[in-house]
Amino acid sequence: MELWGVQIIGVLLAILLSPFYVGIAQTVKARMQGRRGPSLWLGYYVLKKLWGKETTAPEYSSWIFQVAPTVSLSALTVIALFIPWGGRVPASWPHDALTVFFLLALERFWVGLAGLDAAGTFGGLGASRIATLGSGIEPAMFAVFGLLWYLTGGTVITPIMPQWWAHPLHMLPWGLAVLGYALVAIAELGRLPADNPDTHLELTMMHEATILEYNGRLLAQSQAAVAIKFTSIIALGWVWLGPNLASPWLNLLLRLIELTLSSMFLGVIESLVVKLRYFRLSTYLGIAMGMGMLAVYLVAFQGGK
Fold first, then answer.
1. Signed CA dihedral, 22, 27, 29, 30: sign only
2. Which structural domain range is residue 150 located in?
3. Out of 22, 129, 219, 230, which could bridge 206 as a Cys pair, Cβ 3.0 to 4.6 Å?
């Protein structure tokens, strides 16, 4: 019963605190650039304000435009359910990485579809770029998770920290896989240097271009989905980055601290790097995929599991 309580509370905290973690990244980024920056609670204020506004839709849009934010938010909420917030999950609780990848692809598909359905120039531009970026993110994600699957013999999301501590020769492959995941996570979250979440310039925006036509509650759902995705993707990396403590409650507290530090780190990184040119993103994701493949090869070459 303890694991059930930790898992449920962890999911609720991840959802409720997601705008706060995004606010941390934005505030640190602003301070690094010499600006005061927004309030840490701005995300909650924006969601409350948008939820109370009237919702309208473009003239030529269909039901797809109306449904897409709900599908996106639902898919990302389910991903938050799959993450073992206490270091492990209760018996029979679903936590398969392949399902997480499918839900991420489903969310990306509907966001792009909604951008096309709005029949706007910017929506089509953003949808095209998201689809192209996703075609590189998915194989890179499979590659960096290949080490986890090779060591554990399955596709469930379980920490591999005890294994690489027990086998010092695995530390180099593990480090490569973690670095590769970090690169993929930045691209999946639409952060610099892959994308700039703060701009609406037509030459640079991707995800923002697909939601330009949204307003009211539909825009609030889209913004909430982005925030939940932010916390879930980062937490997924920390699950197998570790450490994994004996107490599930301590693991939950540690995950929340790690999310805070990661949000601050992202704010620092985004202040030091610039956005890559769109045609350079294939090289960026290719490096991440190569790190994952090299990690699996090194483990196999060093004597298996």
1. positive
2. 2-301
3. 129
CB 83 within 8 A of CB 236: yes
Over residues 201-225, the pLDDT tens digits come to 666 677 777 887 888 999 999 999 9
Which residues, 6+ apart, have CB-to-CB distance to 247 below 8 Å?
none
Q: Do residues 110 and 218 lie in contact, with contact meaning Cβ atoms separated by under 8 Å? A: no
Lookup: tokens for 227:
């925030």
Residues constituting the chain: 305
End-to-end CA distance of the chain: 33
Pull the structure tokens for residue 181.
């995941």
What is the rounded CA–CA span in Å between residue 89 and residue 83?
8
> Within a 10 A sphere around the Cβ of 41, how many other Cβ atoms?
11
Give 186's Cβ-side CA count (13 Å radius).
Answer: 25
Three-state secondary-structure class, residue 156: strand
Q: Which amino acid is at 6?
A: V
Bond prior to 193 in cis (omega within 30° of 0): yes
User: What's the CA gap between 41 and 119, in Å, rounded?
Assistant: 34
Q: What is the pLDDT of residues 40-80, one digit of tens each?
A: 899 999 999 999 888 888 888 888 999 999 999 999 999 99
As beta bridge partners, residue 96 has: 156
DSSP-assigned beta bridge partners for residue 60: none
Alpha helices in the chain (DSSP H): 2-32, 42-51, 63-82, 97-117, 121-144, 146-152, 161-166, 171-189, 207-210, 216-241, 248-272, 281-301
Q: Which residue has the tokens 């480090």?
A: 175
What's the total number of domains in the chain? 1
